[in-house]
Design brief:
Layout: E1 15-17, H1 21-26, E2 33-40, E3 42-45, H2 52-70, E4 79-83, E5 88-90, H3 101-108, E6 113-115, E7 121-122, E8 124-125, E9 133-136, E10 143-144, H4 153-171, H5 198-204, H6 216-221, E11 223-226, H7 231-239, H8 246-251, H9 259-263, H10 269-276, H11 285-295, H12 300-309, E12 312-313, H13 317-337, H14 346-349, H15 353-357, E13 360-361, H16 380-400, H17 404-419, H18 424-447
Parallel strand pairs: 2-4, 3-5, 3-6, 6-10, 12-13
Antiparallel strand pairs: 1-2, 7-8, 9-10, 9-11
Zinc ion binds next to helix 4 and strand 11.
């Protein structure tokens, strides 16, 4: 897949400005003041608009974050991000979401930042739904979303420059910073994650390569997501030896879902099952479902099944994320308890796109308008692509069960796909999904379902 014009994403030409020649002559040791401009080109999926002025605003706020970091680390002091060319929209040149490795490969083939609908995969599956961004560690081209399901507008707006910088850092070769919970490069980022250390600043300034860079070949293909995680709050909770209420826990955004934290709510399984069906918690149903995956029992599966089978009027991205998490949660429970395949047949049904198209109703119902979710309602085209994504997630959930009969069925799918008279691109996509399912099944069976999210 080609990406159109040869737009350059990262400026390869740092401008070294000797601001005062006489001063430099007088002080031979004085370091050059280096201005480095990262030029960013932006392409957005057509139904997720972003304007030149919005991009300029995000880049200006990102530049301000670097300037702030420059107060402690000179290398960050004169860095800026600028828009390169006008933003352009795409329809089919790039994937509208990142669902699997194939989508990610296409995103990387073009150096521009892509604004996509959702990120369900970034190196591994994302247990509670989606990520804010996904980038290759060392490479070009990354994807971001504009809204995180369930989060308010102000939060999403605040996060955009942080996410963009975080992903840019990955493309420059930076890995996650596991030391400082407020680091811009922390695995879990929130509106307060703005700290860059000296080595990180030097990488942003183009004056050094990452010190602890992973093997180049591996780094080039290893994607990293921008998680969101209120790490600092969780640390404080642990320090106080207290635990947030279940309701508080599920309201927190998590990209890498904290399975150990979730396990602490095992005694509140029934409450979690109630909350899953409670319209007031609709925006957080992804975290409820992921929690149920960790603490649920055999009796939880019919609750998750009911959730998957419920009709959704005016679906939003949060509803899709929740259903994505619920399909995986069923597989996780089935794996942990070694349940027979009959217990989770719903995942076989849900592998059919029609299962979702029948239930996700994009037009408003005549009565009982749901509360304003302040999130855009998906249109018919969105529902169609979301249904495809959910069908894939159901297949993954099915594989994660690790049940022996499931492997037999996946192998049957493989034979069918090989012999089917279907268009080659579809065949290839199916083959990849089947190959992935076999690997998920193997990992889940041997290492446990939780391993597939790590
Ligand atoms: Zn990251």
């Amino acid at each position: 897949m080609t990406g159109g014009g040869r737009l350059v994403f990262l400026s390869a030409t740092p401008a070294v400005l000797m601001l005062s020649t006489s001063l430099c002559l007088a002080q031979a040791e004085a370091p050059a003041i280096t201005a480095y401009i990262h030029n960013i080109c932006v392409k957005h999926f057509h139904s997720i608009p972003i304007t030149d002025s919005e991009v300029d605003d995000i880049l200006a706020r990102a530049t301000a974050i670097l300037a702030q970091a420059g107060q402690n680390n000179a290398a960050c002091g004169d860095l800026s991000l600028k828009r390169r060319d006008s933003v352009t929209s795409f329809t089919s040149e790039f994937p509208e979401r990142i669902r699997d490795e194939l989508d990610f490969t296409q995103i990387k083939q073009d150096p521009c930042l892509k604004v996509v609908k959702r990120i369900l995969w970034c190196g591994t599956l994302l247990q509670s739904g989606g990520a804010l961004g996904c980038a290759p560690v060392s490479g070009t081209g990354f994807a971001v979303v504009r809204r995180y399901p369930g989060m308010p507008d102000a939060w999403n707006t605040s996060m955009e420059p942080i996410t963009w910088l975080h992903e840019l850092g990955h493309t420059l070769g930076l890995s996650h910073n596991d030391v400082d919970s407020l680091a811009l490069m922390a695995a879990g980022i929130d509106v307060g994650n703005r700290v860059l250390n000296g080595p990180e600043c030097r990488v942003f300034a183009g004056t050094s390569v990452p010190a602890a860079a992973p093997l180049a070949a591996q780094a080039a293909i290893l994607p990293a997501e921008a998680g969101i995680d209120l790490t600092q709050v969780e640390k404080r909770d642990r320090d106080k030896a207290t635990r947030p209420s279940l309701q508080e826990f599920i309201r927190r955004p998590h990209s890498r879902f904290p399975q150990e934290e979730a396990a602490r709510y095992a005694g509140e399984k029934l409450l979690a099952e109630q909350l899953l069906m409670d319209p007031k918690y609709r925006n957080f149903a992804n975290n409820i479902a992921a929690t149920l995956g960790v603490i649920g029992t055999r009796d939880t599966i019919p609750v998750l099944e009911q959730f998957l089978k419920s009709e959704v009027h005016r679906p939003t991205e949060a509803d899709i994320t929740a259903r994505s998490a619920a399909t995986l949660a069923i597989g996780v429970i089935a794996n942990r308890l070694g349940l027979p395949v009959d217990d989770f047949r719903v995942l076989r049904e849900a592998q059919n796109t029609d299962f979702w198209l029948d239930r996700l109703e994009p037009t408003p119902p005549s009565t009982n308008q749901p509360p304003d979710l302040s999130e855009p309602v998906l249109d018919a085209a969105d529902v169609e692509s979301a249904s495809e994504d959910l069908a894939v997630q159901a297949y993954r959930g099915y594989a994660i069960s690790g049940a022996p009969e499931v492997l037999e069925e996946i192998k049957k799918d493989e034979l069918e796909n090989d012999s089917a008279a279907i268009p080659e691109p579809t065949k290839k996509r199916n083959a990849l999904a089947i190959e992935e399912a076999i690997e998920l099944h193997r990992m889940s069976k041997t290492l446990g379902a939780s391993s597939v999210f790590k």
